[in-house]
Each structure stands twice: as structure tokens, then as C-alpha cells.
Automatic annotation (TrEMBL):
GO biological process: mitochondrial respiratory chain complex assembly; protein import into mitochondrial intermembrane space
Entry protein name: Mitochondrial intermembrane space import and assembly protein 40
Keyword Transit peptide: no
Acidic residues: bias regions: 22-31
Classification via Pfam families: CHCH
GO cellular component, as recorded: mitochondrial intermembrane space
Cellular location(s): Mitochondrion intermembrane space
Domain of life: Eukaryota
Biased composition (Basic and acidic residues): 1-15, 106-115
Entries under PANTHER family matching the protein: COILED-COIL-HELIX-COILED-COIL-HELIX DOMAIN CONTAINING 4 (PTHR21622:SF0)
Source organism per UniProt: Phoenicopterus ruber ruber
Domain CHCH: 57-89
């Protein structure tokens, strides 16, 4: 077939590699340069985006993120609500790829937080009274 198996010997591993590392080319357009490229554009290939730009919701993500990046509003991104809402709605079509907190989990968390609050308040009162 198309696959080929190659066995490496102990001697192969003991011999220093002859591979040469190529110096980074600053003009390489695919070189990872962070989220924002030197010209101010968004680097959609940045690993920091976690593949969001190339996933099934990539176009919606790019639209929302671009809007936020280039926003000149007093509250940055306040003009991008519609794009983020569209992205969120689109992501809900792919729950396996974009898991969201279950509403029941949120209710349990908030009820646990509420249970802890009165207890903390009563402990604080006891501490004030005992001094």
C-alpha cells in the first residue's frame, strides 16, 4: 500500500541529528505573529483564537470579532451586539463543539451561593459579638 514502516535502530538514535533549523523569516505571512499583525489586521491563524475563526461558526465569529476590534464607540464593541448575538445563536446549533452551561447547573450554583451567604453573615455577626 501507500504506507511504509521504517524501523529505527539504537545506533540511529545515538547519532546526532543532521537536520538544519531555518531562521524565522519575518516576511513569512504565515508566521505566527500574535493576534494582531504589524499592519493592525487580525491574524485569523493565531492559535490564541482556538480555531474559532475556522470552525463551523467561523464567519459569524470573524464578523463579531472584527466588529469589536475595529469598534470606535465610547464603550468599545457596544455597536457589535447584533453580530455577537448572531454568533451565539449559530453556536447553539453545535452544542458538542461549543458546550454551554446547563440552566439547571446555573440554578444549582446560584442556590449554593445563596445558601453560603446567610451562613457567612451569621459567622461575621458571631465574630463581632465575641470581641
Amino acid at each position: 500500500g501507500k504506507d511504509r514502516i521504517i524501523f529505527a535502530t539504537k545506533e540511529d538514535h545515538e547519532t546526532p541529528s543532521s537536520a538544519e533549523l531555518v531562521a524565522d523569516d519575518p516576511d513569512d505571512p504565515y508566521e505566527e505573529q500574535g493576534l494582531i499583525l504589524p499592519n493592525g489586521d487580525i491574524n485569523w491563524n493565531c492559535p490564541c483564537l482556538g480555531g474559532m475563526a475556522s470552525g463551523p461558526c467561523g464567519e459569524q465569529f470573524k464578523s463579531a470579532f472584527s466588529c469589536f476590534h475595529y469598534s470606535t464607540e465610547e464603550i468599545k464593541g457596544s455597536d457589535c451586539v447584533d453580530q455577537f448575538r448572531a454568533m451565539q445563536e449559530f453556536m447553539q446549533k453545535y452544542p458538542d463543539l461549543y458546550p454551554q452551561e446547563d440552566e439547571n447547573e446555573e440554578k444549582e450554583k446560584s442556590s449554593k451561593d445563596l445558601e453560603a451567604t446567610p451562613m457567612e453573615a451569621s459567622v461575621a455577626k458571631e465574630e463581632k459579638g465575641s470581641s
